[in-house]
C-alpha cells in the first residue's frame, strides 16, 4: 500500500490528466475498456482499504472518474444485475 500502490496510482492519474485534463476518460472522450479496468481497480482499492483511499489526496482525477463511472447508467445497471455476485460491492466480481 505504501510502496507499490502510489507508483501505479500516479501513472494512472498522469495518464488521465494527459487525456483532456481528466475531464473525460482514460484514453478518449468515450468510455473504453481502460475505464472499466480502472474502475474495477479503484473499487477494489476503496473496498479493501477505505481509509487509505479516502485520505489519498494524490488521485483527485481518478476519484472524479470513479464517481462519473459509478453514475453511468450502464455501469449502474450492470452492478444491479444478476451478472454481478450478490453483495459484492468492492469490485465487479
Count of the separate structural domains? 1
User: pLDDT under 50 segments (min length 5)?
Assistant: none
Number of helices: 5
CATH T-level fold name? Glutathione S-transferase Yfyf (Class Pi), Chain A, domain 2
Mean pLDDT: 88
Indicate the CATH architecture.
Up-down Bundle
CATH C-level name: Mainly Alpha
Order of helices and strands: HHHHH
Taken as a percent bin, the fraction of beta residues is under 5%
Helix percentage range? 55-70%
Reported for the largest beta sheet, the result is:
none
Question: What is the global morphology?
Answer: globular
Structural class: mainly alpha
Q: Tally of extended strands?
A: 0
Overall radius of gyration = 13 Å
C-alpha termini separation: 22 Å
Feature tags:
single chain, 93 residues, mainly alpha, Glutathione S-transferase Yfyf (Class Pi), Chain A, domain 2
Describe the protein.
By secondary structure, the protein is mostly helical. The chain has helices at residues 4-18, 33-48, 50-55, 60-70, 73-80. It is built from 5 helices and no strands. The radius of gyration is 13 Å and the shape is globular.
Topology:
Layout: H1 4-18, H2 33-48, H3 50-55, H4 60-70, H5 73-80
Helix pairs in contact: 2-4
Q: In brief, what are we looking at here?
A:
By secondary structure, the chain is mainly α. It is built from five helices and no strands. The protein has one domain (4-80): Glutathione S-transferase Yfyf (Class Pi), Chain A, domain 2 (Up-down Bundle), CATH 1.20.1050.10.
Amino acid at each position: 500500500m505504501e510502496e507499490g500502490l502510489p507508483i501505479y496510482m500516479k501513472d494512472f492519474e498522469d495518464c488521465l490528466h494527459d487525456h483532456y485534463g481528466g475531464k473525460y476518460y482514460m484514453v478518449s472522450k468515450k468510455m473504453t475498456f481502460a475505464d472499466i479496468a480502472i474502475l474495477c481497480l479503484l473499487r477494489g482499492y476503496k473496498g479493501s482499504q477505505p481509509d487509505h483511499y479516502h485520505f489519498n489526496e494524490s488521485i483527485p482525477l481518478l476519484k472524479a472518474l470513479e464517481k462519473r463511472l459509478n453514475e453511468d447508467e450502464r455501469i449502474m445497471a450492470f452492478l444491479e444485475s444478476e451478472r454481478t455476485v450478490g453483495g459484492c460491492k468492492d469490485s465487479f466480481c
